[in-house]
Amino acid sequence: MEYDGLNTRSARSLFQQAAACHKAGDLVAARRKYQQVLKREPYLVEASYHLGMALVGAGAYGKAISQLGWTLVLEPGHRDALFALARTLQITGREGQAIERFHALVSEVPDHAEAWHALGVTQKALGRLDDAEASWRRTVELAPLQGETRALLGSLLQSLGREAEGEAELDRAQALDPDNPGILCLIADGYRGAGRWPQAEALYDRALATEPGHVGASTGKALALAARGEAAAATMLLEPIIATGSTVVDLALAYAEVVPAERTRAAIGLLNRALKPGPPPGAERRALLFALGDLCDRANIAVRAFAAYQSANALAQGHFDGALFERQVSARMEAFGPDAIRPQAAKENGPAPLLLLVGLPGGGVDLVAATLTRHPGVRLLPAAPLPHHDDPRPDNPTAADLAAAAAALAPDLADGDERLAVLPLEVLDLGLATLCWPGVRVIHGNRDALDAGLHCFSHDLGPAGAFAADLDLLTMRFAAERRLLEHWQEVLDMQFLEVAYERLLRRSQETLGALFDFCRLDWHDACLEPAAAAESPGRHRRYARHLRRLRLALED
Questions:
Q1: If pLDDT is split at 50, 70 and 90, which confidence band does 464 have?
Q2: pLDDT per residue over 322-364, tens digit each?
Q3: At what angle do helices 95-108 and 113-125 cross, to 10 degrees?
Q4: What range does the domain containing 428 cover?
Q5: Is residue 359 part of a domain?
Q6: Is 92 helix (H, G, I), strand (E, B) or coil?
Q7: What is the Cα–Cα distance from 198 to 115, expressed in whole angstroms?
Q8: Alpha helix locations (H) across 92-128?
Q9: Which residue, of 269, 300, 317, is where some domain finishes?
Q10: Are both 259 and 350 inside the same structural domain?
């Protein structure tokens, strides 16, 4: 810590005392003494910065953000303050602002490996996976021996289906620090996410052998055991750690996921204890609140469940402009009227076979996608919504325009893979898609709208699901999107099949047979598995009074 610039002996002495208290971990005393220094020297940059760091250490994140911001007013290029501010914004769930600060820092200091790493973590939290990959690749370029970043990069690549690349990065991470339990857990998490249970459990065991009782290894192994159907073993692994009084967030979340029904109230108690000291109002706190809501729902305590979901949604990030969405829907209905001219699509837009999958958020789309992707003759393309929704289609589009639109909607389509390509598509983009691929097959994954709305409200959908954080916005979006879907069925050139979520659960073989006929696929037994594990219909009935506005809007 620097003491230069202090104009009085008393201020210099106070700063030294504050620094000593800070180093010793006495944050209360350090904070008080830094404030006394600033009363004497209000524009002392280092005192302002270290006060901000003491506030971070004490969990006073709002005040820390203000203090670090003031530090940057005093010295705009203060790199440590900029990094600390970005990290504090990140952990308090303000990911968008954090990314702006991280970008400012790496623009100023392009070789700041720690900032690139944290930027990647924040981008991944927002679902910006390509950006996260680029940031982590820059990190390992600057710091080749950074095992944690390589482990995160490997896990990300595996989640994107790039198994060989991902495994290579995980192997490099392990070679760099073979006995570090934290690195071993990150690598194991990657294997667990890819469904490779034996490799994941072996690494968790190695981490536990290195550091018995390691919470990350214990929770990771418990989740792997539960995924393989060994929930009892998973619970037994976690309960001795819980008995020590630990309220670590990852432990509480893992226990909530694996606990048997008869231990639900014990898990509720653990989540409440984890919430009391309180992680900051960011992703961890949202996750705890959503988990608490799910457990209360399981215990049939609907009032407490809904309150937990409301508290979680109050911390949601992102913004949904309801008025803009309404304008977008109206523009499409006008542009794609019954008398609209249909231009010819370019032949090179992409080879058959292609199937589009649409539906209301939280509806049956995910279940239909999971069902189809169990079939060896099917591949799921990544959703690629168009960035400019204000223009429903260009005026008099040429074949080249449509070819470009097709490439934007399905960039991975023309890669020579002969399996049936299934493309999840936003309802807003369906009109343009049928111009690109006239006569295309479209599956509408339908579900009871109240169950779908409750599903959205009770799950963390990330920034893209900002509409679900407010029941009024959710109601508006559902009503507008359903209106647009009905319009599409009347005016678009497509082959259309509706697959009802409830019917797929209750009459699985019959419904699946019709789905396979439409998709021109042969029967495959594994496709029955997702319906057997899906959420039961009718959950909304326990929340009838909370969902009254949504029900009335959909009845109009």
A1: confident
A2: 899 999 999 889 888 776 655 554 444 444 478 999 988 778 8
A3: 150
A4: 322-555
A5: yes
A6: coil
A7: 34
A8: 95-108, 113-125
A9: 317
A10: no
